[in-house]
TrEMBL record:
Annotated ABC transporter domain residues: 2-249
SUPFAM superfamilies in UniProt: P-loop containing nucleoside triphosphate hydrolases (SSF52540)
Pfam families the UniProt entry points to: ABC_tran
InterPro entries: AAA+_ATPase, ABC_transporter-like_ATP-bd, ABC_transporter-like_CS, ABC_transporter_ATP-bind, P-loop_NTPase
UniProt-recorded Gene Ontology molecular function terms: ATP binding; ATP hydrolysis activity
Entry superkingdom: Bacteria
Subcellular locations according to the entry: Cell membrane
CC terms in the record's Gene Ontology section: plasma membrane
Name of the protein: Putative ABC transport system ATP-binding protein
Principal location listed in the UniProt entry: membrane
Family under the similarity heading: Belongs to the ABC transporter superfamily.
Organism field: Rivihabitans pingtungensis
Membrane-topology annotation of the record: Peripheral membrane protein
Amino acid sequence: MMHAKGLLKTFNPGTPIENRVLRGLDLHIETGQFVTVIGSNGAGKSTFLNAISGDLLVDSGSLHLDGQDVTRQNAWQRAGLVARVFQDPMAGTCEALTIEENLALAWQRGERRGLGRAVKAELRELFREKLSILKLGLENRLTDRIGLLSGGQRQAVSLLMASLKPSRMLLLDEHTAALDPKTAAFVLELTDQVVAEGKLTTLMVTHSMRQALDHGDRTVMLHQGRVVLDVSGEERARMDVPDLLAMFERTRGEAITDDALLLG
Ligand SMILES: Nc1ncnc2c1ncn2[C@@H]1O[C@H](COP(=O)(O)OP(=O)(O)OP(=O)(O)O)[C@@H](O)[C@H]1O
Ligand SMILES: [Mg+2]
């Protein structure tokens, strides 16, 4: 489970460019729940994911993963709990390393000791088996540099890397945004599979309302650093894209009015 309570984060405080990005964000996610996250540019979605992964520390509030208080832990300390796939296919993999070296790095995530230079034979077999699930023929290209792969292939490998070791949370930040529609659909299908198999508690940020409703079992909307909409169950099952869009517009309008009132 993931429990975020009253998260606050202000960039450049006390300067003319002060930016209050997280403004009291509360969200509780049960173990195994798959939540899609929508919200306009600058709503604080990536910042929230950075706060969960420990890539940034919040100013105040608390964050629990699986009952553990990780609020003050850095990314390295949380690495065994959180796996992540970014929007940019280049961000999640190391271009200069081979496919198997990248997978070996993911295999070591959250561990103190390295594997040594050689990738052990049994690991290679495991990687081959995992890669074959992708049906991209990558199981025969273990020693190819990952820089040679297309964006979609890299995202597929990134997902595999994120799910290689059991983790508590999977964070997906617009991870199909840079892909063509067909490849995006493939990576999304793979996402559903990986989440279901690993029973992962998942947050998936997307700008596609269609994706937000078609994947996972709950949708939340962030606006100005807070959760302003939270739909699941029957209500969500009955929703279509126009309903969600209407809610998106209405909620944004209301939130802006609320803020204006507070300021006024
Ligand atoms: N490290 C940082 N330093 C200063 N400002 C930052 C930093 N990271 C994010 N911001 C600012 O915080 C705000 C929220 O950014 P964030 O990336 O969380 O938005 P987002 O909801 O992910 O938007 P998008 O849909 O465009 O990805 C933006 O105004 C952004 O410029
Ligand atoms: Mg973002």
